[in-house]
């Protein structure tokens, strides 16, 4: 019984200690559409939503003790229609025991640009119409609907975009990249994961060293390469330029919509090459190589693999 009471007392004491070292900072800024929010967060998760008027900021901080809160400085500045927020911890060679958590919740006008950086958390974006520039050194980046051009970067997580109306640049060193329907071009780079793209209205540039690439539908040219997986892609419209899909660790499968004309150049070092679509062969055709014209020819479609077969199919 004594042990139970002691444990309960310690738990209440710890809870009280946490409660005593929590605070919330709130600020509001009178701005209109077209401005820019700049956030330089030394640590913490960031969530930005669009709607309403002005910029509203709510920062919830939680620390192990009051001294940690005091050593975290948050500053605000407004210059016309632009708002700048900075969070910074006091640097000390003697401090190696930080136990600190910050949640940045920010609302901006619908047509507003955002430039976000955090060194230790996730970034969550919802329904933004302006330009987006977001990067984190230690978390995931997720976005709902983005209407403007977006550049999303992380060194230690996944990137997930549900819907994009503008061009998208997504780069990560340690996770997967997923982009839903997008009207513009998509550039996706990862060193440690898979790339999955839904319907892409513009050109595609995809690179990964540690996973497969799947493009459900592309209306522009495709430049995709991986060292560690298979590639599948559907070309829905006549490409305006040359496309190349290559892998060192899997197969390549491409579906072509009816009537698409390309100059096919397909070769496999680790399997055979097959086509369900008629190809006017140029030169000699081998089991591992097919070169010729599809539907009268057009831009080049180069397919390469060292670790599997190549398949060309009709959509």
Describe the structure.
The protein is mainly beta and 315 residues long. The chain has 2 helices and 29 strands. The strands form 2 sheets. The chain has a 15-stranded mixed beta sheet with strand order 5-6-2-8-10-12-14-16-18-20-22-28-24-27-26. A hairpin with a 2-residue loop joins strand 5 and strand 6.
Task: Walk me through the topology.
Blueprint: H1 2-20, E1 22-29, E2 36-41, E3 45-50, E4 55-63, H2 66-70, E5 72-79, E6 82-89, E7 100-108, E8 113-118, E9 123-126, E10 132-136, E11 141-146, E12 150-154, E13 159-164, E14 168-172, E15 177-182, E16 186-190, E17 195-200, E18 204-208, E19 213-218, E20 222-226, E21 231-235, E22 243-247, E23 252-256, E24 262-268, E25 273-275, E26 280-281, E27 289-294, E28 300-305, E29 310-314
Parallel strand pairs: 2-6, 2-8, 3-7, 3-9, 8-10, 9-11, 10-12, 11-13, 12-14, 13-15, 14-16, 15-17, 16-18, 17-19, 18-20, 19-21, 20-22, 21-23, 22-28, 23-29, 24-28, 25-29
Antiparallel strand pairs: 1-4, 4-7, 5-6, 24-27, 26-27
Keywords:
about 325 residues; mainly beta; 15-stranded mixed β-sheet; 14-stranded mixed β-sheet; 2 helices
**How is the biggest beta sheet arranged?**
15 strands, mixed
How many helix segments? Answer: 2
Q: Kindly state the mean pLDDT as a whole number?
A: 90
Q: Write down the Rg.
A: 25 Å
Helix content: under 10%
Terminal-residue CA separation: 71 Å
Strand content: over 45%
Name the overall outline: elongated
Poorly predicted spans: 2-19, 93-97
Sheet with the most strands: spatial strand order = 5-6-2-8-10-12-14-16-18-20-22-28-24-27-26
Structural class: mainly beta
Let me know the number of strands: 29
């Amino acid at each position: 019984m004594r042990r139970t009471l002691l444990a309960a007392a310690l738990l209440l004491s710890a809870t009280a200690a946490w409660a005593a070292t929590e605070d919330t900072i709130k600020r509001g800024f009178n701005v209109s559409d077209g401005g820019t929010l700049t956030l330089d967060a030394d640590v913490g998760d960031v969530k930005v939503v669009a709607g309403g008027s002005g910029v509203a900021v709510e920062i919830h901080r939680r620390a192990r003790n009051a001294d940690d809160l005091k050593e975290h400085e948050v500053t605000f500045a407004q210059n016309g229609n632009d708002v700048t927020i900075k969070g910074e911890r006091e640097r000390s060679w003697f401090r190696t025991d930080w136990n600190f958590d910050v949640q940045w919740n920010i609302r901006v006008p619908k047509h507003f640009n955002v430039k976000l950086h955090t060194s230790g958390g996730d970034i969550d974006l919802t329904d933004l119409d302006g330009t987006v520039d977001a990067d984190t050194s230690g978390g995931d980046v997720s976005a709902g609907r983005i209407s403007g051009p977006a550049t999303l970067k992380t060194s230690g997580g996944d990137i997930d975009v549900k819907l994009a109306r503008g061009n998208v640049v997504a780069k990560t060193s340690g996770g997967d990249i997923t982009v839903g329907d997008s009207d513009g071009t998509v550039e996706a780079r990862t060193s440690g994961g898979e790339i999955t793209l839904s319907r892409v209205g513009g050109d595609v540039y995809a690179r990964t060293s540690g996973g497969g690439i799947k493009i459900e539908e592309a209306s522009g040219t495709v430049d995709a390469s991986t060292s560690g997986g298979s590639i599948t892609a559907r070309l829905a419209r006549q490409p305006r330029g040359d496309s190349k899909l290559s892998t060192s660790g899997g197969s390549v499968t491409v579906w072509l919509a009816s009537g698409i004309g390309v100059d096919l150049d397909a070769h496999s070092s680790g399997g055979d090459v097959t086509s369900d679509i008629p190809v006017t062969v140029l030169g000699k055709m081998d089991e591992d190589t097919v070169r010729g014209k599809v539907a009268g020819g057009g831009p080049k479609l180069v397919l390469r693999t060292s670790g599997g077969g190549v398949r060309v199919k009709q959509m």
